[in-house]
Predict the structure.
Amino acid sequence: MGQLAARAAVGAVNGLTARWAGTVARDRNTAFAAPGVWPLLAFLADGADGHARVELADALGVPADQAASAARQVLATLDGVPGVDSALGLWTRRTVEPHAAWLAGLPARAHGVLTGDEAADQRALDAWAAERTGGLVDRLPVALTDDTELVLASALAVRTGWLRPFRDRPFIPETGPWRDRVLPGLLRVSSVLDRIGVADTPDGRVTELKVLGNTPVDVHLLLGEELMTPGQVLGAGLGLLTRAYPLVPGGQLPYGEAGPGVRVVRELDTRPAPPTLDVTTVAFDLTAHHDLLAAHRLFGLTTAQDTGRAHFSGVSDFPLAVGSAAQSATASFGERGFEAAAVTAVAAVAGAAAPAPRYRTTTVEACFDRPFGFLAVHRRTRLALVAGWVGDPGTHPEGEETHDPFGV
């Protein structure tokens, strides 16, 4: 595929992320990875027929006859990103013989066998999930049953350390839904003002903070106006990836309240100093489980669930229907870096006192002190690898040791 087709594939995956974000609740933590779901749906679409094929293509945002090649492009993009590990696996019972043409479209050596021993098969696939995510997700998100004929699964793990670490410090918001709580605060002062920006979107203003990783993966924190929904905030962040909305960078923001959570102030100081960006946010450690069939229309899996007929004649002559589909995801943002993982599976069944101040300095103060969204983004392609919402960051573990994969 050429660059135009590659950009179209990234746009299609980000489109699914945007639509998925529309289902997020404001007060709940969640994380999800559309790049873990999209290739599975694409390979299914390639082998589907009838109305199931139409629905899957609509959910994908690409024609069904282009879905497999687009899925391979997405998987190739993931494979080329340092700090990102991805895998795709297919397991079938011996009664299901996949067509060679369809099987050839999957990654090499992806095909395994289900023995029919449910417990043994479950252990094997759980071990695959744990191994492929470095233990971040320790089991397959679907349970195998006596009726399971085929499992198509993906695993995705993302790790990046910060170019400049934060400082861990308890943080107590003075207003908003987290008011008077002792939160796991993260603080950082920088002279690079343009890491922050404010955008006007059709749904309201959104503040974007880019936290640069030491791999080609960055994390964008997104704070919208208080009445905006998670879907609107995350949708705005995805729009910013394509420059759909004008973004005013930190160095050009006006004095005073410049955007959600952002204030630009001029203060007296004891010595000359360059403008600074003073960021306060919170650490988070999230896990989420998504039943994809509970949102079957979003994922194009409505007709495919009907066990009264076969829907995937391009996959196998054995009659197949979708019996279960789910994703388990985790995301952790801390003082030294970010890590996240997702395992997705579709199972088919049959059918800072000072001297007197003399100088003026400018400070851009950014404070994420209420629910906000995040996107882990591949810097070059702008593919949103993982998205999520921080509705409740928990309490600062004063005096307790916490898991830090980037520490020593």
